[in-house]
Structures are given as structure tokens and as C-alpha cells.
Amino acid sequence: MNQAVPPLAQGTLDRDAPTRLGETLLAEAWHDPRARLLRVRGAEIPIAAETRLALVETTGDWTPVAADGAVGHVFLGRIDGTPVFACAAAPGEAPESMPNADFQWRPTFEIAVRLDESERELVAAASALLRWHESAEFSGADGSRTRPIQGGWARLDDHGRELFPRTDPAVIVLIEHDGRVLLGSNALWETGRFSLLAGFVEAGESLEQAARREVFEESGVRLGDVNYVASQPWPFPRSLMLGFHAFLAPGQDPEALDADPDEISELRWFSRDELLTPPPGILLPGPLSIARWMLDRWCEAGE
Hints:
With about 300 residues, the protein is α+β, with helices and mostly antiparallel strands. Helices cover about 20% and strands about 30% of the residues. It has seven helices and 16 strands.
């Protein structure tokens, strides 16, 4: 059974805004005997026993700013009341360099599907925050140095201006016509991999306008009804995927497809049977993506 909301969007992480707003509360959470720390090494996360996120005890002092001025510890929130923090590991840091650490570094996208939803949400929040801090060390307004505040959920520049993590909205569209859905293969992907058509929202554009524009640019077809379905954070590094279910505009020929050669190598209509049992050589979106969730949901609706 397809879950009610996409992966990474179930809300198991209590972001606990009141705690992040007070240094005393943050220090108390850090010294809570239950508190845990997630270390992230670039695009890798620490995994124990192949299926569990390796969280370690918090030790020493709560340190929001590292010795070199970079972000130190960030407060992710709470899982079942347990405070959880995150920090960036050094690029070459090995497990054996950490005390009482029995884990392996594994690529996030390879292993996250095996984690439970609360652990996935921790990884998503940590990835988004730590990547943002890497790019926000200096103010875009005047180039002054910024420093982390609010438990890592904001930064402050020398003039008192607050900076907050950016989220880039992107639409992703399930296009249905006569019992089939339209999928595209990105020009940068391996042959045979297909997904829903998607693209970033442009300045001054509504979500529905973006859906219609992106689909026309990538496939050459016009959409009729466009209805919002659900959203999914995709913080690798900072996207928010907004899912829509759409139908072709009246009079549109479903076979008159015109793929944008710079972005799409192939367009193809798929039936429910083909999605449930893909033909040889066809690869569908990964199980963590909203694209796969929407396709599974569409298939279930036809049962």
C-alpha cells in the first residue's frame, strides 16, 4: 500500500523551534543524556549494521561555531523527545578515528532507502542545513562574514541582517491520458531510465504556470487541468518538489511529442501494467522519490 504522504514528508522530526531560539536551551539539549549527534561526511552518512543510522553520544560543549569559523553543531530537533544534533565530518575522516564508533560511511542515496522514516528525515535536515552553511559564510548583500545563530537554522551578518536557508521550488508532473502516463528520460541519465517531467519554478511564476511551461518545453504538449497532489523536501542540496496531476488539453495529440533535445533524450507513454512490470531495460524512479510515490499512487488508483 502506497503511504499517505511521500517519503521524507511524514513529519516524524519535531523541529522544536523554541529550543533553537535560546542558547541556554540548546546547551541543555546538548547535555541531555539522551542527546545524539549525526555526523555527515559530504554525500555520505554513517551506517551501523547496514540498516541503521549511526548516531553517537554528544560529548564536550555545545559548539555552534567551529574553531575555523565554520558552522559547528546544528540542532536538528527531536525524535520521540530525544534531541538530535548534526555536524560535518572531515573529508577523510575514518570510522576508527572516532571513539566507540562501529559504522561505515555509505552514500546517502544508496542506503537511505533502508532507513526508517525518522532517520531519513534527520538525514534530510542535516544535509540541507550543512550544505547551506557551506555556501552562506559570507553575506550576499555586502560580502561581510556571517555566523550561525538559532541552532544553525539561520546566520547573522556584521550589520545584523539575518540569512535563512534557501529552498528552490520545483514542479513535478504526472501527465495522464487515456489510461497511460507520460515519462521522459533525461539526456544526462543512462539509457532506459524514465521519470516524470519536472523543472524549477521561475521568478514571478505560479506553480501551475511552471507545470504547464516545463511540460510544454520538455515535451511539446499543452496541459488542461493541473491539480496539486503533494510535496516532498529534496534537500540534496535544497529543492522542494511540488507534485501535480495533470491531463492533456482538449485537442492535444498524445503522439505529437516534441522532446527538448538539450534535456530529454526520449519521451514515452506507459500503461499501469508497464509500470507494475517494467519491460526489460526500463528503469523507474527510485523508491525515495516523489516521482515513484506518485506513480505507485496512480497505479493503485486503477486497481
